[in-house]
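#random but structural
TW: two for the price of one
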Amino acid sequence: MKKNAIITIDGWSACGKSTLAKQLAKELGFVYIDSGAMYRAITLYFLRNHIDWTDPKEVEEALKNIKIEFHFNEKSQQSEVFLNDENVEWLIRDLVIAEKVSDVAAIREVRAFAVHQQQLMGKKKRIVMDGRDIGTTVFPHAEVKIFMTADNGTRVERRFKELFEKNPNISLEEVKANLEMRDYIDSNREVSPLRKAEDAILLDNTNLTMEEQLEFALKLVK
């Protein structure tokens, strides 16, 4: 494998894309970039500042005031997202953000802004980036492309466990409805819809452990 490769991991919500991307980056000594966190951070900014995202001019003006960076936290050994110099890693994982992020991510101006930022981050290569259009739009010539999937029941269970830790009042029905809505918007949006790149390798991790999926991905990369 080239030492300066780009690895893309795309797929549906709650398939464990970020978990695998973090594992791979750590094993290979690459930088991990969570593209979904970028869209969540933009959504947080829009909500906080009461931006009408149905108005393209207002969106374009708002994007001029947004700076997104990733910093490695030595203590947690995780990459964390900063919005205008504020660590928003935990704030963006809220269900309120999850309910709006697919709408915001479907906006042409928002995607153009995020894709440009992502491509700048990838100039030095040696990165693992996960999302929904990384292997198709952001890095169509990436050396390694993985497309992740899992059955719906498994995905709902995983997302519920993740959100329940932060919000014990959440219900399984809310999580299921949110995932179904995001799947529909992600795969039907006009700009860069979620789809498997022709040269991406499919990874169904419904019945795989985290160790098994990492082993699969490492074999593919090497």
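TW: number two ↓
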Amino acid sequence: MNAQAIPTEPGLRYVETENDRFKRSFGSWFWGSMITATVVHFMLFQFWPTQTADDVSFTSEDLEVIELPPEIEIPPPPEAISRPATPVMAVTEIDDDITIAPTTFADNPVDDLPPPPTDDGGTDLSAAPVFTPMTVRPEILNRGEVLQALMRLYPPILRDAGIGGTVEVWFFISEEGTVIDQRVSEPSAHAQLNEAALEVAEVFRFSPALNRETIVQVWIRLPITFEVQN
């Protein structure tokens, strides 16, 4: 900071700072600013005499009275339901000698079963699923291949989403145990599972069905279930 020494009494020395000089010149700066502001305002009124302030007033619309809806009367709670009466056991005399006759094959011989169907040209078993008399039901012989087909034909979109289902399928089985025809009996909620179940049905192999000692063609119904293994 610049400083200027000002002579004072003998033996003393006073140093004037920039702040002191600014204080001494404050009067000239103040009055110079006032004169400049006055000139600027005078020129504004002289050259722009028509300058006016914008109208910023506003008007309020009439208030509309809204009728309140009637007060809703809350009905009282329903009366408590009376507790039902305690049941009373009726007193009835039962004969202790009442028995049910046992069911035996002697009273219901196998010979009373209907005869096996004959190909007389009057009935076509392959036309549609029908009841077929049998004494020995076909058994699945290739469960391992069926499980592999279930995993292979499981629709990937449904499997990844964890969606499964069961499809009831009719199987028409030949005398050799092969599947001649397969049809959906009760579909699942997804068409893709129904189509996959019919493809899996083609893989099944069965033991021949018997009606007494005769090998017969039969219709049977089996469920095919698709499920995600945890």
